[in-house]
């Protein structure tokens, strides 16, 4: 039996893939450790790619504005300075926004911590009174609760004794945290430099990457890769833009509502609610929990009103803002949004919660296109006596509306 060259390549590919798959299954821990080490080494560059993508979302409108301002003058110097100046403006905008957030949040968090320490004796007395009252109620129902005796001075002495007896552990932990912080700062600086280089040379890098793919990969596969890359870029861009817009709207509405109701910590809570709103679905609960705790330390009753206010705000956000701003931008049904956030969060933490929705949207769009193309192929050769295909197609069209 004669086997042509193309068939031989397929057979060799299947054999190689099968061998690698069995090796991974039997040495999964080694494979996972290898992936983890490679990811750790490449982490600054992966973060740089993320930074470059986020900066590019801001860079494009700034460059468009630059071109409109200098289009009529046709200044060669303006053309040469367009990219570096626009990158500098984009970085400055993001750094300024981060410093503003820190300037708003840090003093409020410090004041809250000082207030908690100052009010600790009063809190212990209130907790002791509440526990005694609860014990009396339970005693009437023949339920005996354990005795609780709280004293602020005793708590202070216990804390001092605990810290002194575990000083070595705290010292080692402090050294570890300091090392991790310096490592993280170094990685962030390297990532920022890498992202700026990518943005400065993005057209050249794109051309070089296409040349490499066309030289090593068949043309039909290159077209598929480029199509998927374009879909991914558009989906992530729309998602980032939509999430930022929604976060700003939610933060502003929260600040206005808290100001009207004269609630404490309105600026810091509004910023926290807006920032956590970047996380789809579960971000609102995180921001609400932190904000309610901060208000609870000062005015417990208003903490309850704050939770009720956020619930109303979430209804407005879920039914009006999110579908208009973000929902249409990713084209993903709500069931898959919840699944993407849950799976991404359990797998990769907060990063997975942030990237799960656009990534799932890309997979959903590709799979939908494949299914529709296969349905079209079957439709052309379908038996007229079998109307199931037309019904499935109609149901699919209705579900997409």
Keywords:
401 residues; single chain; globular; mainly alpha
Textual characterization of the structure:
With 401 residues, the protein is an all-alpha fold. Among the domains are: 218-330, no CATH class; 334-401. The chain contains 13 helices and no strands. α8 (219-260) runs antiparallel to α11. The protein is globular. Residues 377-401 are annotated as: Disordered.
How do the helices and strands line up, and which of them pair or pack?
Layout (H helix, E strand, L loop, with lengths): L4 H22 L1 H43 L5 H43 L1 H21 L11 H14 L1 H34 L1 H15 L2 H42 L5 H11 L6 H14 L3 H31 L3 H47 L7 H12 L2
Would you identify the regions where 5 or more consecutive residues have pLDDT less than 50?
Answer: 397-401
Q: Give Rg in angstroms.
A: 29 Å
Distance between the termini: 53 Å
Largest sheet: none
Strand tally is: 0
Count of DSSP-assigned helices: 13
User: Residue-averaged pLDDT, rounded?
Assistant: 79
Helix and strand content put the structural class at mainly alpha
Q: Which shape, going by the Cα principal axes?
A: globular
Which band does the percent of strand residues land in? Answer: under 5%
Order of helices and strands: HHHHHHHHHHHHH
Helix content estimate = over 70%
At a glance:
By secondary structure, the chain is mostly helical. 87% of the residues lie in helices and 0% in strands.
